[in-house]
Amino acid sequence: MSGTTKVSTASSVGSGPGGNGHRGQASRLPPWPAWAGRRVSRLVLRPGRGFALDASGPAQPSGDRAKRVFALMLLLAITAVAVAQYGTARGLIPIAWLAVGPLLASLVLSPRITAGLAGWALLLSLGLVVGQPGPPSSPGMLASHLSVPVLLAAFAVANAALRTAAQRRLSQVRAVARVAQSALLREVPATVTTGRLASRYVSAAAEARVGGDLLEVVPDARRPRWLIGDTRGKGLPAVRLASVAMTSFRDACAQPGLSLPEIARVVDRSVTRACDDEDFVTAVFAELDPHGWLQLVVCGHPPPLRLTADGLQALTPRAYATPLGLHPDLQPSTFSVSPGDRLVFYTDGLLEARDRAGRYFRLEDCADTLRHPDLQAAADGLLGRLLAHTGRKLEDDVALLLLEATSPVPYEPQLPPQRENAATKAPQASLVAADTGRGR
C-alpha cells in the first residue's frame, strides 16, 4: 500500500447535496499519501455464493485414482528391481534399496497401502537372501541381511501413520479457520436498494481467506452502506485490525440516526483504540441514497472510479482525510448516480500489482472488461486479467467491489430527520439545480 497509483484518470464528479460538482475536468487520480507498509491462495467472495477457494501449492497426487496408479507403479518398480537382482549372478544393488518403494509411498499413500508395499518388499528381500547361490545362509547371516530392510519398512509405515494423523489435525484446524474467516468477511449481497453488487477478494497470504483488506456491505433497505479499505502491515495483526474496523462499521450502521461521517468517526475511534502507534487503516465509506445520490467519506484511500464512455474517471472527493487511526478530518462528498452507472471500488493491491518485468497493472486498460453486460462476469474478467498480469502471484491483498446503479425511487421531499446531516440538508430547489450539473 505504498506509492501512488499508476492509473491516469479524469474526474467525472456528479453534484448533489454537499457535493463538489466537477464535470469533465481532466486530471490524474489524486495521489494519496504513502502511509502504508507492503503485505497464494486465491479467495473469491461471490455475492450469494459464499467463498470459492482456488488452492495453490506444491503439486501432489490427488484423488483415489491417482493414488492407486502411484501405488501400482511402486509395486511394479519394487518387483522389477527384485527380478533384476535375482537374474544376475551378482547383486546389482544392496537388498536394502528395495525399501525405497515403501519410503516413497509413506509420503503420499495411506498407512495400509504403505504397509502392503513394505510387506511385499520384505518378502522379495527374503527370497533374494534365501535364493543366493552357495551354502544356505545361517540364521545370523539372514538376520544381518534383512535388518536394514525391516527397519526401513517399519519407518515407512510409521511415517505414513504420523503424516495421516497430522493431515487430519490440519484439516480440522483449517475447517475452524474457514468458519472464523467467513465470519470476518461476510457474504456480499448481489443486490441492494437501487443497485447491484459484485465483489471479489484475493488474499496474498498462502492458505488464507482473509487478509488485511476490508470489504463490508450493510444492505440497509433505505440506504445501503459499505466500507472498503486496507490496513497497514501484514499477517495476523493486519487481520485483527481489519476485523476491528469491519465489526465497528457493522455496529455503527445498526445504530439509528447516524450519518455516514458519524459512522466513520465511530470506526475511527475503534481503530485508534485497537492499533499501535504506527498502525492505521485507509478506507472509503459509501452510502447509496435511493434517490440517485452517492455519499463518500475518503480516508487516505484511492477514491472509486466511474465507468464512462471515455474510460474510468475518478470520483474526486471534496477533501482527502488522513487514514483511520490518525485523527482524520472527515469531510463527506456527494455525487449523482444515474441508472446504468458502474462504479469501481478497490484497494491499492489492484494498482500496485506488477508482472515479472516490474510493470504495474493498468486498470484503465480494463474498461472494456468492466463493460460486460453481466456484472459478475465483469468482476471475474477483471480479476482474471489481474492474475494473468502477475502470473497468479500477488504481493498484496486485493478487494474489489463493483456497483451498478439501477432506477432510483421517486424523490420524497421529507427525508427522515434522523438521517439528515449537514452534508445532505438542502432545499429541494438546490437538488434540482445540482442534478443539472451545477455543483455547490
Task: Characterise this structure.
With 440 residues, this protein is α+β, with helices and mostly antiparallel strands. It folds into 2 domains: 254 residues, Phosphatase 2c, domain 1 (4-Layer Sandwich), CATH 3.60.40.10; 114 residues, no CATH class. 36% of the residues lie in helices and 17% in strands. It is built from 9 helices and 13 strands. The strands form 3 sheets. It has a 6-stranded antiparallel β-sheet. The chain has a 5-stranded antiparallel β-sheet with strand order 5-6-7-8-11, with helices on one face. It has a two-stranded antiparallel sheet with strand order 1-2. Strand 9 and strand 10 form a beta hairpin. Helix 1 runs parallel beside helix 3. The chain is elongated, with a radius of gyration of 31 Å. The N terminus and C terminus are likely disordered.
Question: What proportion of the residues is helical, as a percent range?
Answer: 25-40%
> Based on helices, strands and strand pairing, what is the structural class?
alpha+beta
Largest sheet: 6 strands, antiparallel
The count of domains is 2
Terminus-to-terminus distance = 33 Å
Task: Report the CATH architecture of the largest domain.
Answer: 4-Layer Sandwich
Let me know the average pLDDT. 78
Q: Which CATH class of the largest domain?
A: Alpha Beta
Number of helices: 9
Number of strands: 13
Side by side, the strands of the main sheet go 3-4-13-12-9-10
What pattern of helices and strands is seen along the backbone?
EEHHHHEEEEHHEEEEEEHHEH
Task: Write down the CATH topology of the largest domain.
Answer: Phosphatase 2c, domain 1
Estimate the global geometry from the Cα principal axes: elongated
Strand content: 15-25%
Rounded to an integer in angstroms, the radius of gyration calculated over CA atoms is 31 Å
Oligomer: single chain
CATH 4th-level superfamily of the largest domain: PPM-type phosphatase domain
- Runs in which pLDDT lies below 50 for 5 or more consecutive residues are 1-62, 413-440
